[in-house]
Write a structure and sequence with these properties.
Elements: E1 6-15, E2 18-28, E3 31-36, H1 43-50, E4 58-63, H2 71-79, E5 81-84, H3 96-106, H4 112-125, H5 141-153, E6 159-163, H6 171-184, E7 189-193, H7 197-203, E8 206-211, E9 214-220, H8 221-226, E10 232-235, E11 244-247, E12 253-256, E13 265-266, H9 271-290
Parallel strand pairs: 3-7, 3-8, 5-6, 6-7
Antiparallel strand pairs: 1-2, 1-4, 8-9, 10-12, 10-13, 11-12
Helix pairs in contact: 3-4, 3-5, 4-5
Bound molecules: adenosine-5'-triphosphate.
Length: about 290
C-alpha cells in the first residue's frame, strides 16, 4: 500500500465563532484528486492549510512526512510544495520570465543558469514561452493565470495544490493544462479545487466533495457518476419539478431529478449531474433530520 503523502486527522478551522472546516479526516496519495464544493464550502481554507499558509484550529496534519506545526518541518514542506492560490498579486512591472524567476529565487534556487532553464521549462509547459518577455500588466487575465501556474510547477514539486487553475483559460489552454497535470500526477500528489466538473471528470480518478466544511463524498469519480444513472432523462416537455432542466440544442429537454418519473428515455449522466444530485440529497437529508 502507498504511504499517504497527506494525512489529516480531525482537522478543523474556525474564524471567530464560525466553523469553516469541521473535523476532516483525509488521506491523499500520488495522483490527481479533484476537490469540488459550492461557494463557501471550505475548499480554499483546506488548500491553504495543506500549503502551510494557514494553521488548523484543531486536529493534526502530516504533509509529505512532516508536521507543519513545527517551523523547521514547515520549511521542508514548503521546499517540496507548489501552490497556486485562488487569487495572487503580481508585480505588474515584471516580465513573465522575471516574475517566475523571482519566485524560483525565493524557493532557494541559487544557481542562475539551472534556475533560468527551469523557468523557461515551466513557462513552456503553460504555453507562455513566446510571451516570457512581456510585462505582467500587459498580459491578458488568462495569460497571467498561466504565469501564476508556472511558478507552482517550478522544480516538479512532490505536492501540487491548485486553487481553480483553469479559471479564465481558453479551451486550448485548458486541454493543454490537463496534459501537464496528468503528467504531474504520475509522480506527485496533485489536489485540484475547481468548479469545472468536466476537468475533474477528464483528469481525476478520485474526487472529494466538500459541503459546509465536511466531506460529503470521497471516492472514485466513476462511482459518483454511477449514482446518477436512472436520474437523467430526455423529454419533449419542460419539467418544473426537476433539479435541473433545460432545452438542449436538439430542441428536446434534458432533466435531472432525485425522483424521476417512470418509463422515461434515460440519458447518460455526467459528473455534474451526479454532483447536483449528491448536493440535493444532502439538503433533503438535512431537512429530513430537522423535520
Ligand atoms: N479570513 C477569513 N475570515 C473570516 N471568514 C473567512 C475567511 N476566509 C474564509 N472565510 C469563510 O470561510 C468559509 C469558507 O471559505 P472558502 O474560501 O474556504 O470557501 P470555498 O469553498 O473556497 O469557496 P469558493 O468556491 O467561493 O472559492 C466562507 O464562509 C468564508 O466566508
Amino acid at each position: 500500500m502507498t504511504t499517504p503523502s497527506i494525512q489529516l486527522v480531525g482537522v478543523g478551522r474556525r474564524y471567530g465563532p464560525t466553523t469553516v472546516l469541521d473535523g476532516l479526516d483525509l488521506d491523499l496519495t500520488p495522483g490527481v484528486t479533484g476537490l469540488l464544493g459550492p461557494n463557501g464550502a471550505g475548499k480554499t481554507t483546506l488548500l491553504r492549510i495543506l500549503s502551510t499558509v494557514l494553521a488548523p484550529s484543531s486536529g493534526h496534519c502530516r504533509i509529505l512526512g512532516f508536521d507543519p506545526a513545527d517551523p523547521d518541518q514547515r520549511t521542508e514542506i514548503r521546499r517540496r510544495l507548489g501552490y497556486l492560490p485562488q487569487e495572487s498579486g503580481y508585480p505588474r512591472g515584471f516580465t513573465a520570465f522575471r516574475y517566475v524567476d523571482y519566485v524560483a529565487a525565493l524557493k532557494e534556487w541559487t544557481e542562475r543558469d539551472s534556475r533560468h532553464a527551469e523557468v523557461r521549462r515551466v513557462l513552456a509547459l503553460v504555453g507562455l514561452d513566446d510571451l516570457a518577455a512581456k510585462r505582467m500588466r500587459t498580459l491578458s487575465g488568462g495569460q497571467r493565470r498561466r504565469a501564476a501556474l508556472a511558478q507552482a510547477l517550478l522544480g516538479s514539486p512532490d505536492l501540487l495544490v491548485l486553487d481553480e487553475p483553469t479559471t479564465g483559460l481558453d479551451p486550448e489552454q485548458r486541454a493543454s493544462l490537463r496534459g501537464v497535470l496528468s503528467g504531474a500526477g504520475h509522480r506527485s500528489t496533485v489536489l485540484l479545487a475547481t468548479h469545472q466538473t468536466e476537468d475533474v471528470a477528464a483528469l481525476c480518478e478520485r474526487v472529494i466533495v466538500l459541503d459546509a466544511g465536511r466531506i460529503l463524498y470521497d471516492g472514485a469519480v466513476t462511482a459518483l457518476v454511477g449514482t446518477a444513472t436512472g436520474k437523467v432523462w430526455h423529454a419533449d416537455e419542460e419539467q418544473a419539478a426537476a433539479l435541473s432542466s433545460w432545452r438542449t440544442g436538439t430542441g428536446r429537454y434534458r432533466h435531472v431529478a432525485l425522483d424521476p418519473p417512470e418509463d422515461v428515455e434515460l440519458a447518460e449522466p455526467t459528473l455534474e449531474d451526479a454532483y447536483l444530485l449528491l448536493r440535493a440529497q444532502a439538503v433533503r437529508d438535512r431537512a429530513g433530520v430537522t423535520a
